[in-house]
Design goal:
This is Alkyl hydroperoxide reductase AhpD. This protein is mostly helical. 78% of the residues lie in helices and 0% in strands. The radius of gyration is 17 Å and the shape is globular. It starts with a helix and ends with a helix. The mean pLDDT is 95.
């Protein structure tokens, strides 16, 4: 299994990350589609080729073709939106938030899967990308759609653990030649 391959690749100092990776992918209260869509979208958001390869392979075993594409779309659209909305927020001039973004975002309205699932994936990617404005927006929609805070928290935990996995393995790949 791909999650197991990543767990086995994590060094001893990342034992907590290894245990958390196993936990967030095996004890979730999210539906299978919510869980594996979140895993895939987060893997893509890390930009780590190894993590993307391993987790996309496993996610493919759990997601329909439509859900797989929608998770990829969530990662893609949030890569754009997180930069734009984080920047307009960080500038500190609220006038920017009143201007039209003029960015095409139709996939958010018609993601091809349940709207709440897509919003959950967008929230998790926004956590990795650090966009507070997007986190607030997607959390609000999820709560309005009836998702509990505990389920929202699960998506955030998945994002945190997958991000830590990618950061650790990518750092190890860079450090490996220096330690040989």
């Amino acid at each position: 299994m791909s999650v197991d391959a990543l767990k086995n690749a994590l060094p001893a100092y990342a034992k907590d990350t290894k245990l958390n990776l196993g936990s967030v992918t095996s004890t979730s209260q999210l539906t299978e589609q919510q869980l594996w869509g979140t895993v895939l979208a987060c893997a893509l958001a890390t930009r780590s080729p190894r993590v993307i390869r391993e987790l996309a392979e496993e996610a493919g075993d759990h997601l329909s073709a439509e859900a797989f594409e929608a998770a990829k779309a969530a990662a893609s659209i949030m890569a754009m939106n997180n930069v734009y909305y984080r920047a307009t927020h960080l500038i500190g001039d609220e006038t920017y938030s009143t201007l039209p973004a003029r960015l095409r975002m139709t996939v958010i309205g018609k993601p091809g899967v349940d709207k709440a699932d897509f919003e959950l994936w967008c929230l998790a990617v926004s956590a990795i990308n650090g966009c507070g404005r997007c986190l607030e927006s997607h959390e609000k929609v999820l709560r309005e759609q009836g998702l509990s805070r505990e389920l929202v928290q699960e998506a955030l935990r998945i994002a945190a653990v997958i991000n830590a996995t990618a950061a650790t393995l990518d750092a190890e790949a860079v450090l490996a030649p220096a330690t040989v």
